[in-house]
């Protein structure tokens, strides 16, 4: 029994005679946020975790899930984690790399061949060791990685060669490694948080989007596109984070229970993407949107130039390249 559950048990005994609800008075209410829509893999994982937590603690600990950027952008959620206003989050490593640049190493173009290879890199000891710097550098505890699949491109205009991307405005998640990738290619990167993407693509504010298979299919971006490049050009890891302040206030038992659970649900997303990434892309193709598989040769011009910018900023790059070679 956890410290909190024990306390609640004692309180329950004492309060029962008063006819008061224990949960209303003593339950510890935790909050988890994410930028993804309610039916997204991350949001659903958080809902399952909330159910498990309530059941395991007999309601002594609850977890309220705030999907769809209800608490703000990922940058704002990171700040809330740092102040303790938010207890937990599933955040992209993109946001983490804005604060701790060595995490930019995960975005080396074509680091992984496919999602299964990406998962082997993300689950490596070397990747896990990187999480150890987060309490010191960012005021958060990173318990485990997950993923949102691999990056693809959906475009309102047909893309025959990489030259056709030149001059287009492409929506990117707001972080530097992806911005540099498209700048090198002569594409105009337009940073937009996920909830703003559909309208921007629909009204032509952007010509194309950098996105993953789940959302190209699930949010019907493909219906606004005349071309989808199935490129797998970058990994897109997620991390399960606990606020450093929340962490400090937890007992040892609570830390163990919450970190085990959050890690399991974050890591479980990797298996979902290994299984479903190709299926979602096939569904896009079956729906009639022109879709093409392109590889590293399509973006060849950008790969070395990207490495030249990021090798000095992200010492982890050499380490993750070795992991990628070893796990290929
Ligand atoms: C995005 O910014 O494209 C994104 C963020 C989180 C999950 C999936 C996609």
Total helical elements:
15
Distance between the termini: 43 Å
Secondary-structure element order, N to C = HHEHEHEHHHHEEHEHEHEEHHEHH
Binned, the helix content reads: 40-55%
Largest sheet: 10 strands, mixed
Percent strand: 15-25%
Give the CA-based shape: globular
Report the uncertain regions: 1-25
Radius of gyration, taken over Cα atoms and rounded to an integer in Å: 21 Å
Q: Give the beta-strand count.
A: 10
Bound molecules: benzoic acid
User: Could you say which structural class the secondary elements and strand pairing correspond to?
Assistant: alpha/beta
- Output mean pLDDT: 92
Q: In a few lines, what is going on in this structure?
A:
With 328 residues, this protein is α/β, with parallel strands linked by helices. The protein has helices at residues 3-16, 22-26, 41-56, 74-83, 93-99, 115-122, 125-130, 134-138, 176-184, 197-202, 213-218, 244-249, 252-286, 300-313, 316-326, and strands at 28-33, 61-66, 88-92, 140-155, 169-172, 188-191, 208-212, 227-230, 235-243, 291-293.
Secondary-structure map:
Elements (H helix, E strand, L loop, with lengths): L2 H14 L5 H5 L1 E6 L7 H16 L4 E6 L7 H10 L4 E5 H7 L15 H8 L2 H6 L3 H5 L1 E16 L13 E4 L3 H9 L3 E4 L5 H6 L5 E5 H6 L8 E4 L4 E9 H6 L2 H35 L4 E3 L6 H14 L2 H11 L2
Parallel strand pairs: 1-2, 1-3, 5-6, 5-7, 8-10
Antiparallel strand pairs: 3-9, 4-7, 4-8, 4-9
Helix pairs in contact: 3-13, 9-14
The structure holds benzoic acid.
Benzoic acid binds next to strand 7.
């Amino acid at each position: 029994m956890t410290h909190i559950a024990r306390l609640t048990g004692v309180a329950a005994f004492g309060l029962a005679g008063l006819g008061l609800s224990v949960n209303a008075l003593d339950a510890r209410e935790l909050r988890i946020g994410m930028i993804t829509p309610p039916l997204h893999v991350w949001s659903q994982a958080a809902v399952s975790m909330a159910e498990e937590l309530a059941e395991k603690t007999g309601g002594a600990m609850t977890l309220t899930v705030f999907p769809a950027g209800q608490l703000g952008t990922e940058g704002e959620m990171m700040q809330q984690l740092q102040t303790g206003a938010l207890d937990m989050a599933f955040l992209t490593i993109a946001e983490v790399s804005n604060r701790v640049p060595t995490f930019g190493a995960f975005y080396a173009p074509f680091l992984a061949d496919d999602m299964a290879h990406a998962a082997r890199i993300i689950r490596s000891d070397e990747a896990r060791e990187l999480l150890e710097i987060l309490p010191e550098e960012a005021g958060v505890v990173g318990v485990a990685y997950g993923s949102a699949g691999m990056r693809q491109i959906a475009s309102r205009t047909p893309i025959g060669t990489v030259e056709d991307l030149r001059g287009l405005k492409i929506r990117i998640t707001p972080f530097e490694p992806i911005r540099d990738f498209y700048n090198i290619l002569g594409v105009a990167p337009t940073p937009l948080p996920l909830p703003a993407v559909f309208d921007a693509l629909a009204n032509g504010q952007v010509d194309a989007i950098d996105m993953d298979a789940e959302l190209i299919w699930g949010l019907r971006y493909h219906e606004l596109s005349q071309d989808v490049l199935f490129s797998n050009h970058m990994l897109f890891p997620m991390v399960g984070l606990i606020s450093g302040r929340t962490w400090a206030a937890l007992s040892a038992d609570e830390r163990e229970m919450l970190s085990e659970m959050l890690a399991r649900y974050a890591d479980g997303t990797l298996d979902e993407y290994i299984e479903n990434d190709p299926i979602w892309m096939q569904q896009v193709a079956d729906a009639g949107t022109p879709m093409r598989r392109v590889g590293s040769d399509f973006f060849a011009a950008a790969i070395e130039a990207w490495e030249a910018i990021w090798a000095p900023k992200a010492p982890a790059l050499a380490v993750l390249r070795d992991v990628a070679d070893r796990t290929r």
